[in-house]
Write a structure and sequence with these properties.
Blueprint: E1 10-15, E2 27-31, E3 38-45, E4 50-54, E5 57-60, E6 63-65, E7 78-81, E8 86-90, H1 100-103, E9 106-107, E10 111-120, E11 126-127, E12 138-140
Antiparallel strand pairs: 1-10, 2-3, 2-10, 3-8, 4-5, 4-7, 5-6, 6-12, 8-9, 10-11
Length: about 140
């Protein structure tokens, strides 16, 4: 999840419980399909969203999600539809991330917790997720993928 998270940082997490559901923008701890390994990714799409993947990011309902990377002009790699209770996860460095562009949308049951605060070291204390990461996140789609 570089550059959002760096080696040695300790984060606080909140398990999804008491009716709280994952939301687009959340940084989450999830279980990778097949391996069950813990992964940390950002939710970029939720139920009902259409996603078109590309090596440097993805289009979500016609908007580019590439974390400051300009939208590509090349052909898309794949496309997905997030069904009820499904979420599309992507790393914040999409060119170097194994995420839903590889394994598809995840069911909400595979998402265990929302990471909400970098707590250590104190000099890097900051919130995570929808409001904590202020980098530009999207460009409007111009019609070509």
């Amino acid at each position: 999840m570089a550059p959002t998270l760096r080696p040695g940082e300790i984060v606080l997490a909140d398990r999804y419980s008491r009716g709280r559901q994952p939301q687009v923008g959340d940084v989450v701890l999830a279980r990778a399909p097949g391996t069950g390994l813990a992964i940390i990714k950002r939710i970029v799409a939720g139920p009902g969203h259409e996603v078109v993947g590309h090596p440097s990011g993805c289009w979500v309902n016609g908007q580019w999600r590439g974390n400051g990377i300009e939208p590509p002009s090349g052909p898309p790699v794949d496309s997905h539809h997030c069904g009820p209770g499904q979420f599309f996860l992507m790393g914040d460095d999409p060119s170097h991330s194994t995420d839903s562009r590889s394994f598809g949308p995840l069911d909400a049951s595979a998402i265990e917790a929302r990471l909400w605060l970098v707590a250590w070291p104190p000099a890097r204390l900051r919130p995570l997720g929808s409001g904590g990461d202020q980098r530009p996140r999207s460009h409007q789609r111009t019609g070509q993928v």
